[in-house]
Design goal:
This protein is mainly α and 410 residues long. The chain is built from 16 helices and no strands.
Length: 410
């Protein structure tokens, strides 16, 4: 009888896991879409408001500064009130932000829209990873993290195609207005399946218990590996921020590409990165030495970045190199997430992912300012040199985290 019950439960558990992974992945995809809500439209916005590259970069910086601060705080809120409500709030903010951006009449309104989008974006990683860790079977977590990363990259890849196509046919304002409907559509799907996203929240029954819990809630911040993970995410975000914000402009100047070809190169980067994450998910599920996978993946990505920076290839090969950089970066994704899980203490999932992933937002906040200044100084090749440099620094932090985690487990 026990064997029969187990056999009947297995397909049901798998179905539930697949549904949760799909719903969380859908939400993650829309959050990454909104990372790119402005960058593909920079050529139109730059002309419409007579902005410099540095001013365009500041729009991205504001988005990620707000997101980084909010992400660190939202991790605590997720642990207190549950991931589902926080996730619904964030998705709603993204839709409203796109409407504000589409109606912007000056630079201040663009900044306001970026800030609101940053608030919405801040909730996703603490909410997503709490849901995956609590609702998905442990044997499928590697694949769950892989799908999570893939959907994020697909969101990044879809944004330029969606926005540039609509802006080219109509206006940049229409493109943003159309983008506003996407989060609300995703929210409707999540609300329909809301029961699958419910997580239990531990309630402390006395003031004494609550005080002890509050004191213990900060203990994870004393773990060196957590801050090394923060540093790791900061470095990979610096590299990613350069590619997201100014790779298209750099490629156009270095290789005399059209806007369409440069957008294709970026889209190819993101699609290849999604493919890399798919393979990386299988690698991550078969090893515990995640820092070694990250080292190999980023080493290859860094080498290809330097080749692209050299300018010795033609435009067609440059597009292929963008894909190679994306694939190497993608392979590291699932190993990255499992490395953090190994470093995180129990019952602090939301807080740890909130703090660690605020490193991602911090890097994405700083990167546009640095890379925007590089472009204003007319050094497009430096974009890819810096990308490779930050990937090397990410390797060093990953090795440090892996060494510390193995030492504690021994």
């Amino acid at each position: 009888m026990t064997t029969l019950a187990t056999n009947q439960a297995a397909p049901e558990n798998m179905k539930k896991d697949v549904m949760v992974i799909s719903l969380v992945g859908l939400a993650h995809g829309i959050s990454h879409f909104f990372h790119m809500i402005l960058a593909p439209l920079f050529p139109w916005i730059k002309d419409a408001f007579s902005l410099s590259f540095a001013e365009l970069g500041l729009l991205m910086t504001v988005f990620f500064v707000i997101s980084g601060i909010g992400q660190a705080l939202s991790g605590f809120i997720v642990d207190k009130v549950g991931a589902r409500a926080v996730l619904f709030f964030g998705i709603s903010c993204l839709g409203v932000a796109a409407l504000v951006l589409s109606m912007s009449q000056n630079y201040s309104m663009l900044l306001m829209g970026s800030m609101l989008a940053g608030v919405g974006n801040s909730v996703f990683h603490p909410s997503d990873y709490t849901l995956l860790n609590k609702k998905v079977s442990s044997q499928r977590l590697g694949y769950a993290f892989s799908v999570h990363g893939i959907t994020g990259n697909l969101g990044w890849a879809a944004a330029p195609v969606f926005l540039v196509t609509i802006a080219g046919l109509t206006t940049w304002r229409t493109a943003l207005f159309c983008a506003a409907f996407l989060p609300f559509a995703v929210l409707a799907v999540l609300v329909f399946y809301r029961d699958l996203l419910h997580t239990e929240v531990i309630q402390h029954k006395s003031a004494t218990h609550a005080a002890k819990a509050a004191e213990g809630s900060m203990d994870f911040m004393r773990i060196p590996a957590v801050w090394m993970c923060f540093g790791f995410f900061f470095m990979i975000a610096m590299a990613l921020g350069g590619i997201q914000s100014f790779s298209s402009a750099s490629l156009r100047q270095m290789y005399d590409m059209s806007l369409g070809s440069a957008t294709t190169a970026y889209t190819f980067y993101m699609l290849a990165s999604a493919g890399g994450m798919l393979w990386g998910g299988f690698l991550a599920a078969r090893t515990t030495n995640h820092d070694r996978t990250i080292t190999l993946a980023f080493s290859f990505a860094g080498i290809f970045s330097l080749i692209l920076a050299s300018g010795v290839v033609n435009a067609g090969i440059a597009i292929l190199l963008m894909g190679a950089i994306g694939f190497g970066s993608g392979v590291a994704g699932p190993s990255r997430d499992l490395m953090i899980r190994a470093a995180a203490p129990k019952n602090a999932t939301g807080r740890v992912y909130g703090i660690v992933y605020s490193g991602l937002d911090s890097g994405l906040a700083v990167a546009p300012l640095i890379f925007g200044a590089i472009m204003d100084a007319h050094h497009p090749s430096w974009v890819f040199i810096c990308v490779g440099f930050f990937q090397v620094l990410a390797i060093l932090t990953a090795v440090n985290v892996g060494s510390r985690t193995r030492a504690l487990a021994a």
